Amino acid sequence: MSQSVLIWYDGIFLEPEDLRLSFGDFQKQMYGAVYETIRTYDGKPFALKKHFDRMKRSLSYLREEISINFRNFLKIVLDGIEKLGCESRIQAFQIPRSGKIFFIFSQLKSIDVSQGVRIGISSVRKADPLSIPPQLKMTARADILLARIFIKDSYDNIMLGPKGQVCEGTFSNVFIVKKGRIVTPSTDSGILDGVTRENVIALAKELGIPIEERWMELKELINADEVFLTHTSVGIVPVRGIEEKVLFETGTGTLTDELRRNFENFIRERKENWEGIS
User: Fold this and answer.
1) Residue 276 included in any domain
2) Are 94 and 150 part of one and the same domain?
3) Domain containing 212 — which CATH number?
4) Fewer beta carbons under 10 A from the terminal one: N or C of the chain?
């Protein structure tokens, strides 16, 4: 059975038009929701246990626990993938205070990024980690929501931290290449530790490419030899331009291209990406 979008809520799968919330749940949803975005490769959910554990961590900042164990989380995800009948993008949400969980399953869109994308630099700064933990992944984060408003024609906007350090995009992590060395902002720069980011770091080490995790200045981003983004839905995204000022060549011979060629085979073979999935 093939559907375009499916929702799991209150123990059953629904089509979007059949979803009904109680007034109480509707009110609680106004606080926002902790969430994770997952995708499939060959019909299997990628790094599901890592996403589950990260969702638990986000909820811990709100002094809450996840309302479901991993075994049931996995069953819902696998059932939804089967019902959808195609490569899937899965969003899992938990509403604070009510503890209600729901899942949205949709067809994974194939996006051609081979020619590179253009990114912008956001005028909206990331919230100070002392105010909002960067590892709290929640729909109600005002700093990220404001930065997304101004993306316009860019693929994503890169956000800077309170001290001007490069942090991340509104939905992606950022990497630069300079003189054959890869650099990405460290977690203490004020970023979310992306699952795809983690895999790219491991892949670079396996390929023998020097890689650093550290604070990054904006001038390093502007003057890089190559720039690429990482995020769950697409994987590795080469950057061709930053706003209207800088163009990067993409294609064969670049480290970005080498990582992209090896990425999917690497993640398929890395056992920890499939932990808990038989």
Assistant:
1) no
2) no
3) 3.20.10.10
4) C
- pLDDT, tens digit only, all 278 positions of the chain: 446 899 999 888 888 777 776 666 666 666 689 999 999 999 999 999 999 999 999 999 999 999 999 999 999 999 999 999 999 999 999 998 889 999 999 999 989 998 999 999 999 999 999 999 999 999 989 999 999 998 888 999 999 999 999 999 999 999 999 999 999 999 999 999 999 999 999 999 999 999 999 999 999 999 999 999 999 999 999 999 998 877 776 666 799 999 999 999 999 999 999 999 96
Q: Do 124 and 261 have their domain in common?
A: yes
Place of tokens 């930065």: 147
**Are 91 and 221 in a shared domain?**
no
